[in-house]
Amino acid sequence: MSTTTTTESAKGSAAGPPQTKSGKSVPPDQRSWRLRLNRADIKGTPYALVAPYFLLFMVFGLFPMAYTMYASLHTWKIGVPGREFVGLQNYSFLLFEYERFGWSIVNTLGMFAMATVPQLICALMVANALNKRLKRQMFWRMLVLAPIVTSVVAVGVIFARIWGQEYGMINGFLELIGLDAVNWQAGRFSSWFAISSMVDWRWMGYNSLIFLAAMQTIPRQLYEAATVDGASQRQQFWSITIPQLKPVIIFTAFISSVGGMMLFVEPMMFDAGRLSGGSDGQFQTTSMVLVDILRTHGNYGVSAAAGWLLFLVIGLVAAVNFLIVNRISGSK
Amino acid sequence: MKVALAAAAAGSIALTSACSGGGDDDGMTEDGKIQLTVSLFGTFGYTEAELESAYEAEHENVDVVFEGDGANWDTEVRPALDTALDTGSGAGDVVGVEEQAAVELFSNSAVWTDLSALGHDDKAENYVDWKWDIGHNPDGNLVGFGTDVGGMGMCYRTDLFEEAGLPTDRAEVAAAWADWDGFQDVAQTFVDSGIEASFLDGPTQLQNMILGQTAGAGDGELYVDAEGNLTLDSAATTTAVQTVLDLHEIGAIGPYVSWSEEWIAAQAQGGYAVMPCPGWMTGVIETNSGEENAGKWDMAAAPGVAGNWGGAWLGVPASSPHPEEAAELAAWLTAPEQQVKVFEAVGNFPSSPAAQADPAVADATNPYFSDAPTGQIIGASVQDFPALEYGTLHTPVKGAVEGVLNGLIDGTYSADDVWDAMQSEAENAVELSGGGL
Known about the structure:
CATH superfamily of the largest domain in chain A: MetI-like
Distance between the termini of chain A: 35 Å
CATH architecture of the largest domain in chain B: 3-Layer(aba) Sandwich
Radius of gyration of chain B: 24 Å
Helix content of chain B: 40-55%
Oligomer: heterodimer
Order of helices and strands of chain A: HHHEEHHHHHHHHHHHH
Shape of chain B: globular
Structural class of chain B: alpha/beta
Strand order of the largest sheet of chain A: 1-2
CATH topology of the largest domain in chain B: D-Maltodextrin-Binding Protein, domain 2
C-alpha cells in the first residue's frame, strides 16, 4: 500500500511543476486548481485506497456490534411484539441466574487449555520435522493440511463414533486391554478430552504450516554457525528456532485462543447437532449457549448480551495469552 | 490515479450490492413462469413421489421448487423460518410446519395467508378433524393444510425377543403389552433373561409418546399451559416421567440418545430391542439397520390408547407474491391422491380419511418389517386421536425435560434429582423463551 502511494505521489509531483516552469503562462486560478487537485491526490489517495476495507468493516463489523449492544440492553424476542429497555438485566441474568452460562465459560476455557497447548507444541514439532530434508517433502506437507479441507460435519460424525460409548473405537481398545468402557459424553473432563482431540486433529496442521513458513525465513547461517560451535540439534532448536519464531508463536497463540474461545462446531457435532452440550451442559461452550438462546428460545436480547460477555472474555484471554507468550519467548 | 479511485469505488459498490442482492424478487422465472418455492424439512416425500413434474404437467405456467429435504426442523428450519416470518421476506411460497410448533407459529395471523378467503374452506373432509382444526388459528383463519399424521406403533426386534424368551408374533406381543403395566412386565422379562442388549433405545421417545397419549386421553395438559405457566405436575408429564423412572430402575432403558451416532449404530448392531415407531420411523430404521437386518424387525400395536407423533402442515406465508397459486399448490399437495402417493413412496401416513381407507394404504405391509401390516396398525392408532395443543413454550421446555432424562441415563442425575433438575431447567427455558427477560 505505502509503495503505491509514494510512486503515485511522485508521479503526480513530477507531472505538475514542469508545466509552470516551461515559461507558458498558466492562468493563476487554473494553476491553483491543479495544485489543489494534486494535493488532494497526495493526501486523499491513500484513504481512498483503504476505504473499501473500512466501509465493509463499518457495515459488517462496527454496525452489527453497535446493534448487538443495543439488542443486549432490551427485551427482544421472536414472536413477542415490542422491545423494552431493561438496562443490564440480560447481563445479570446470564451472570447470576443462568448457571449454564458460567459453566460454559469454564468448559470453553477448559477445552481451550486442553486443546491449544498440546496442539501448538505438536505443531512446532511437526513443523521442525517437515523443515528437515525429507523425501517426498511436498507429500508430507500436503498431508498435514488434509484435515483442514475435510468437512467439519464429517469430522464430527466420525469422532462421535470413535468416542462412542457402546460402539466406539476407543472404548473397544479399552475393553480389549481389560479396562472398563468410558461414557465419554457423560463426564465433563472425558468429553473435553474427546472434543480436544477433534480440535487438535483439525488445526494442528494449519498451525504447523504457519510455523514451517516462519522457520524457512530463519537465516541458514545461524544454524551453520551453531553447528560449527558444536551446538546439538536440540540446542539449536531451543536457542535459534524458538527465539526466531517468537512473533509467529505469539500470532498463532493469539489466533488459537480466539478460535478456542469461539469453539462451536466440534462440540455441537459431538452431540448429534444439539446445542445443549450433553445432558447437563458438560461440554456446552459459550458460543453454543449464545446460539441456543437465539435458536431454541428466540431471545435476541439475552443472546446479544452473551455475545458481548464472550467478547470480553476473549479480550481478557487474549491479553493474558499475550503476556504469557511474551514472557516465555522473551526469556529464551 | 483517477482509475484507482474509480476502481475502488466500483469495487465497494459491487461488494455492497452483491450482499444486498435479491431485493426485487417478483417470484417469476426468467421464462415468465410463476415460481413457487416450497420450503420443507425432513422427509415430506414430495420429491420421492415425483409430485413436482406431476403438478407442472397440469399447470404449465408454474415452476415448483422443493427446498430443505432432509433438513432438521428444530435446529435449521425453524430458526430460519422464525426470522423470515418476522422480517416478512424469504419464507418461500409454501412452507412445511412441524406438529409441535404449529399452534405457536400459526397463532400469528399477520404472517399467514388466510386460505379460507381464497376459497379453500370446503376441504374439511380431506383431513381428519383434529388435523383440520389445528390448521385454523385462534382468529378463525384457515392457515394450514395437514399433510401426514404420525400414528404410533411399536417396533421390536424379533431375534432379540426370541433370545429373551418372549413371544415374537406381533399379535401376541401386542396382547402382552396391551397397557403400560404389561409393557413393564415384558421389559422385566427381557432384562431378567440377561441377554446383551437394552430393552428400549433411550428415555426420550418413550416419554414423548406416553406424554401425548396421556394428555390426549385426559385433560390435554402437557408441560406448559396456554398462559406459559409450567405444568410439570400434569397427569401427562408425571405419568410419562414416572414410567421412564420405573423402567430405568429395572435397567430396561439403553444409553442411546435419540438421533445420535450411537443410536444409529445400535439399530444395525442390535443394541436394543424396542422403540416407539411413528409411521415415518420405519423408513429411518430400514436405512439405519441396512439390508443385513431385513426381517429381524417387526411392528406391533403400541401399549395404551392411540397416540400420535409427528406430522406436519403446509401454510402460505403472507409475504408470498403469489398467494393464490401457492394456496392451490398446498391444497393439491395435501389432497388424498397425493397423500397416497407419498405414503407409497416414503411411508408418511395420510391425514386424509379417504387416503387412509385407500387399499394402497389400509392394506399396506412392510416387507422389511417381516411383512407387518403397518397401514392397519398405524391407521388404527390415529382414528380417534384428539387434537393436542402444543403451546408456544412446549419445544424449549421439552428440550429441558429431555436433557434431564438423558442425564438420568448417563448418570449425571440420580432418580431423586430428576424432578428438581427438570423444574429448574424448565424454569430457565420458560424465562428465556417466555414473558420474562
